[in-house]
Amino acid sequence: MMTSYEQARRNEGMWEMDHAPYLRSRRYQGQRCDDHLPALLIITTSGASSQMSPIATSATTNGDSSPSPQHRVPLQLTGILDDIPFEEITPVIGREYTTLDVRDLLKDPQSDAKLRELAIITSRRGVVALRNQSVTPQEQQELTARLSLLSGTPEESGLHIHPVLNGQRDKAYRATGPNGEASADDTISVISSNFRKKTDDRLAQIQGGAAGEIHSDITFEPYPSDFSTLNIHTNVDCGGDTVFYSGYEAYDRLSPAFARFLEGLEGRYAQPAFQRMAKEGGFQVHAGPRGHAANVGGDLSATHPVIRTHPVTGWKSLFAVGAHFESFPSLRPDESTLLRAYLLDQVATTHAAQARVKWQDTSEGKSTLVVFDNRCVFHAATPDYFSKGGHRVGTRVVSVGEKPYFDAGSISRRDELGGERYI
After folding, report:
1. The dihedral of CA 159, 160, 166, 169: what is its sign?
2. Count of CB atoms situated within 10 Å of the CB of 237
3. Residue 409 CA to chain centroid, in angstroms?
4. CB neighbours of 45 closer than 8 A, spacing ≥ 6?
5. How far is the C-alpha of 112 from the C-alpha of 215, rounded, in Å?
6. Rg (Cα) of the chain, in Å, rounded?
7. What CA dihedral angle connects 26, 313, 84 and 135, to 10 degrees?
8. Which helix (H) or strand (E) holds 197?
C-alpha cells in the first residue's frame, strides 16, 4: 500500500519506477566488480512472496532547474527482520538488537534483502546498536558499504577517507588486516582515546565547549556521509557513552513559520579545525578523493540546505547543526551567529530527542557495533573517563551518500507516524 507521500508523488506524475536491476559495486574491496544482485523478495501479508521493485526515483530539484535522479520515492520496510527481538531506545530515536549477528548477516542467503531492511530501519530510527558482535574491521567495512549501496546511494559514491585520521598520515590510525598486519586501507579509521586526550583541550577551545562535540560526520564535504559504523572493541570500565540527537525530531519541534523560514536557507559547512591541526602538526590534510570525486582538496567546506529531505524515508530533518556547521551566508553575521547558537542549543537541550548508547563491556571478547545515519542524526562523544585513566579503541567506517537536497513536497516524521508509531 502506498503512503500518502508516495500517492502525492504519483498524482504529480513523479512516481516513476526504474526497472533496471540493482547493481552491486564491491567498492569496499577497492575494485569495480559490478554484477546483478539476486532478486529481493517481499513477504506480503498473505504470506506469498513477490519480487521487490527496484529503487524508485523522481525528478525533483536541488533549488535550481536541474533535475536530480537521486530524489527518490521513500523505501518501504518489508518485515524481513521482524522476527528478531529488539528494543526501541526512546520513542523517537534509537533501536537495540542483542541477537542480530553481523557476521551471520553478511553470509545469509537473503543477505542483500536483510541488509537493505537494516539500512531502512537505521534511516527511520536514526541509530541502531548491535550488541554482542565479533566482527573484523574488514567485515565492518563490508557492512557499511553494502548498507549504503543497497539503500540507493549514488553509484559513484564510496567509502570516505578521513582528512586527518588516516593511515597515510600516521600508521597509528591503521586497522589490523586479515592476517594481523597493519591494513593499508584508509577507509577504515582507528578511533583511539589517546588521540582525543592529546587534542581534547584544543578542540574544545575551537568548537566552544561541550556543545561543540555535537556533529554529523563529514558534512564539510560536497558529498557528505549517509551511514557511519563504529565498533568499540577495547572499552573502559565506566563512562564514554555516545549521545545521539534526532534531526527529525528537531525539525518537528519547530513552529510552522520558523520551519518555512529555515527551509529557504542554505548553510556553509566547514571544518577549519582540521586545517589548523594539520598546520600545527606539520602534516597535510588528505587531498582526496575522499569517497567521491567531488570530495577533494584541503578547503573542507561545502554549501548544503539547512533543512534536508532524507532520500530513504522522505522525511525532513534539521541538518545545520554542530561542529561542522559554520554560518548562514544569506544572513548578516550577527543574525547568523544567533541562529546557529539557537539551533545548537535546541538540539543539545531537548532530552526527548536524544538517545544515549552505553558501550557494552568487552570482557568476553564481544563488542557493540553502532550504525547511524548522518543525514538525520547528530552525535557527541562523552570524554568523562579521561580523568580516570581509561583507554579505549575502536574502528570507524563512513560511507558517502548523495548530495544533500530539500524537496518542498516532502513531509516530516511526525506527519507520517503521528504520535503512536515508532517506525
Report:
1. positive
2. 10
3. 23
4. none
5. 30
6. 21
7. 30
8. helix 193-207
Ordered by where they begin, the domains of the chain are: 87-417 (3.60.130.10)
CB atoms within 10 A of CB 205: 11
CA distance linking residue 197 with residue 292, whole number of Å: 31
Q: Which amino acid is at 318?
A: L
Distance CA 411, CA 4 (A): 10
Task: Report pLDDT digits (tens) over 67-95.
Answer: 344 457 899 999 999 999 999 999 999 99
Among candidate residues 229, 215, 316, the one with its CA nearest the CA of residue 269: 215
Instruction: Name the phi and psi angles at 141, rounded to 5.
Output: -65, -45
Residues 121 and 80: beta-carbon distance below 8 Å: no
pLDDT digits (tens, 9 = 90+) for 228-285: 999 998 888 788 899 999 999 999 999 999 999 999 999 999 988 888 888 887 888 8
Phi, psi of 190 (to 5 degrees): -85, 125
- pTM score: 0.82
Query: Residue 343 phi/psi, 5° resolution?
Result: -65, -40
82 φ/ψ angles, rounded to the nearest 5 degrees:
-65, -20
Give how far Cα 93 sits from Cα of 52, 61, 244, 363, Å: 27, 29, 8, 28
Cell numbers that stand for 328 in this block:
548562514
Contacts of 257 (CB under 8 A, 6+ apart): none
266: three-class secondary structure by DSSP: strand
Q: Which three cell numbers stand for residue 341?
A: 547558537
Sequence-distant (6+) residues with CB within 8 A of 109 are none
Q: 124: helix, coil or strand?
A: helix
Classify the C-alpha dihedral 55-109-94-369 as positive or negative.
negative
